[in-house]
Amino acid sequence: MAEFSWEVRSPLERALVAGPYGVRGDAGVSLTEIRSFDLIQVMARRGKAADMAEAARARFGVAAPDAPKAVGTPDATLIWSGPDQFFVLSKAGKHSIEAVGSAFAGSASLSDQSHARVLTSVSGTKARAMLAKLTSIDLHQGAFPIGAAAATSMDHTSVTLWRGDDRDGQAVFNLLVFATFAESLWHTMLDAAAEYGVNIGHSDEL
Amino acid sequence: MRIVCPFCGERELGEFTYLGDAKPARPAADAGEDAVFDYVYLRDNVAGAMSEHWYHGGGCRAWLKVTRNTLTHEISAVEPAAGVGAAKVGA
To answer: Which CATH number fits domain A38-112: 3.30.1390.20, 3.30.930.10, 3.40.50.800, 3.30.70.1520?
Structure first.
């Protein structure tokens, strides 16, 4: 039998070319793919939403989001993804499905999405202007503050969007998209951002 | 047209899929052929307020029961459909 081993590759490996893109000069948009993370989908079993919330508090020390929000803990982010369900996003190996699974035994069903989604961070002075072309969600400071989240669609593709902590005084928008749709959405984002100048990169650090 | 999802807030129509009349209820197993025929095939052509099922597939993936006026498209109520599995249902 042939030797068989998995080599982990980003779904954006072919599409993502690090460096500048579009209009030259100061880049208005930064697109950074985060390539290493653990992502667990947690969905309450029927009638067990309260138990799930309790288990989340015991494990993470904060209430799981019960509205479209992203809640930060010292080593994980809990992101609302629908009624009675949320994602646990953490550095690879921090909150793996094995580690989280026992905490939710009996109250929720878990699904490992670590390699099923692509995580992109969108920032820069023109990040809002670029995202405004792709989403109907109001991303104004007053309507979409830090910690706001949305399960929505961009370019007919389901995405989970949330606002992280500001970086260098600039808003940071995080985007989770299904791995097989990531390349398509990536090109759409590049088209939307080209007029502002783009700085493309990738990082292993969450 | 926009629909205010009880979970996500106001969203554009493109995120939703229309199923149809929310009124028909599955008849009992011994209800007879006429009741099943009615349930499967017969629909009212409502002019006015109508209860409809919509799916928020481009968002939180919840089924919703929307009360919409078919003459004006005015939406007067949106609530989670029975059986979406959410704690809010029936609350």
So the answer is: 3.30.70.1520
